[in-house]
Structure formats: C-alpha cells, structure tokens
Amino acid sequence: MIAVQHVSKHYGHHRALDDVTFHVKKGEILAFLGPNGAGKTTTMRILTCFMPQSEGSATVAGFDCLDQPTDVKRHLGYLPEIPPLYPELTVDEYLTFVGRLKRLTPQRLASRTSHVIDQVGLGHVHHRVIGHLSKGFRQRVGLAQALIHDPPVLILDEPTVGLDPKQIIEIRELIKSLAGSHTIILSTHILPEAMAICDRVVIIHEGRIVAEDAPDRLSSRLRRSEKMSLTVKQPQPDWLERLGTLPGVLNVLPAATPNTCTVDCELGKDLREKLSQFVVSRGYGLLELKPLSLSLEEVFLQLTHQEEDAGPGEFDHHDSSEQPPA
Question: Domains plus CATH for the chain?
Fold first, then answer.
C-alpha cells in the first residue's frame, strides 16, 4: 500500500534523509519511530506530496508521490502534528468545508460527516465552536478531517503530542480501532506509543533507517541472553549466590521489588523448570517466574548506539517484509 524506495532528501550539503527504504502492507499500523530531528516529518511530507524527494521513489496506493500527487491525495488522509483547524467554525461547519475541498457530493458529504463524528467520538460536541474545545477534542476533529473522504491510507504525525494521559489513551484506542480498514503510518518519538499501537516499527536515526521489524522480534534479535524475573516468598540470605551456581545461569541481579531478581540465562535455553525446582526444593516459596524481553527503549538505544559506532553504510537493518506492498 505504501512503498518508499531509496529516498533521500538534501538541503544543500545536509542530508535530512539518506537512502530510506520501507514498505507498509494493507491494513497495517506502522510506527515510524525516532528522536526529534531524525527525519520523520520530512518523510511524512514527501509521502503527502508536500515536498519532493531529492532521490528515490515513493508511492501511496500505487500512485507516485512525485508524478501523481493529486491521485495520492485522493487516497490519503493526513493529520499533521498541529491539526489544520479553523477555531471560529463549529465542528460540523469545519468538516463540511473539508468535505467540499475533498469534492464529496452533498449526499456523500452528509453521510460521511455523520459517520466520522460518531467514529471519533464527537457526537456531543459537533455543534460547538472548535476554538472552545479541549486539545483532546481538537485532535479528534483533526483526525475526523483526515477520515472525511474515507481514504485507504492515513498518515498521522505525532498524533498524541501535548495531550494529557487520559486523552493519549483515548486517541491511541481510536487509532487502533482504524486498523484493518485503513493502512496507517504513525510518526512518533514516544517509545511506549509504538508498543501500544503498532504492528511493526521502523526506527530512523539521523535520516537513516536502522531497524525494521515487529517490536517483540526487535527485542529478540538484540538480546544477548534469556532474561527471567523470579519472585520468591521466603528467600535465604545467600539465595542469589546459589541461583548463580545453576548450569546455564550467567548472572543474577536483585530487582527493585523485594524478594525479586533478574536471572540471565544462556541464549536459547529455557531454564524455567530448573529454576522453579531449585526454588521449591529449598523452601523459598515460588511466587512468580516469567520471561523478560528488551523494552523498546532498550532496543532503540542499542540500535542508535550501533549506528553511531558503525558509521554510514556499515550497519545493515533487517527488513521483515521482503514482499512488495499490497
């Protein structure tokens, strides 16, 4: 549905994007993840035909962003970081205005306006002036304008920035509800947001893609050991040292939670049975034993550190999607 092939963007001698390639399948939510200034917004602007790339190609729904911008825009809904709202209009007036810009027929416009108002939860504020709404509701209005023409592709640039925790949860749930019927690129620098919403993550750093995969697979690829969290009821003073003597255990570290530790085991070995038998046989009282994975924060820090150490062209990211996009 979306294909970005070897795209670069130059501003004089500065390369904002450097040979960026990724694909998004139909119905997928892709998190485009990176720190501020990494190249996320530049990529979004190229995909929305706001600016041309210097090199490479980008297509949306089969249409070329450089040669067929009108066709791309017909198949695209875009929510920029600052929603393009008119605060003096009511929600109904604004969505009617946007629908006319999108060349919806009067009958189609009426049905779509009613539908998106219900879809994004604006039913009880649709008669109110936008300027009088909270930031969370204004963000919903911005999402409604991106959906008004029922596009197959949505591009959302930092959709939860500036919202309070309750509003963030509501917008995330709303975006997740759109998966399947829409293909979505979600640009964010908030790591938990990518974990909460996306099917797959593309990590960009200093204009280059450094990794692309599902969050759990990114964690699996980078970990150097199997990590287990172990909580017991009645530990002995030397219980951590004794755990460290088990075959296959590399390290044992106390955790912040009382009577809990993290056990590093040899990669590829499942020691849950041995650990549980060890704890039970010594009367420690097994309360919890669960595997741990790298957090997305740890994945991001490892990847960007490797990228800085490797230098241009030396770090090869993994592409989990070898097939062409739908």
Answer: 2-220 (3.40.50.300), 224-292 (3.30.70.100)
